[in-house]
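[Meeting: bench + compute handoff]

Bench side (C.D.) handed over the final construct sequence. Compute side (W.E.) agreed to return the predicted structure before the next meeting so the bench team could plan truncations. Sequence as handed over:
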Amino acid sequence: MTAGASGRGVSRPREPATVPAEFAEAVRSLRDAAVRAEVAVAEMRPPQRLAPWSHAVSLDVLHGGSEVATGRLVLLHDPAGYEAWDGTLRLVGYGNAELDPDMAGDPLLPEVGWSWLLDALAEQGARYTAAGGTVTQTASTRFGDIAGPRRACELELRVSWTPLGLDLSGHLRAWADLLCTAAGLPPPGVAVLPPREPGRP
C-alpha cells in the first residue's frame, strides 16, 4: 500500500519553532552588553529542561594572569510564565570566587555576598523582582600530591531573579561586577596601591 492510499501521507521533518520575539530581544541585549575588561564572556550550551527557551553565557574573571572567579548566567523563558517567577523571563546565576583566608570564617559573609548582588543590580539600574538564592562559604585543606595551595577558601552563589524589561545588558554587567567584587577586585578606575615597604615613608 502506498503512503497516499494509507491516508497518512509522507512524513516530513518537523518545522523549527519560531523564536518568541520577547526571548530574541532579551538574548540580543545579552550579546550586545559590554562588561569590565577583566571579565571574559562567552556563550555556552544552556540547560535544556528548565524552560521551553533558554540561553546561557559563561563568565571568567582574570586578574594578574590567573582566573580568580568563574560564573554563568542563564536566561529562561516560558511564554506561559510561572507564578513563582512573577513573569515570563527568569535569570539564574551561578558564581564561584576564591577568597582571602581571613574572610572565610566571617559569619556575616553570606549576608555580605547577597548584598553584593543587590547593590550591583541597583548600581546598573537593572530592575527586578522575586529574587532568591543561596550564598555558601567553604574552606578546604589539600593533602598529599594535589596541586594548588594547601588551604583554599571559596564563595559560591546560586541565585535567580526576574528581570523587569527586555534589556538585560545591565543584569549581565551587574553579575560580572558581583564576581569581580567577590574576587576582591577594586571598582573600575580605582588603582590599588602596593604595600608600603618597612622603613619607608
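W.E. noted at the follow-up: Residues 18-182 form one domain. C.D. will use this when planning the next construct.
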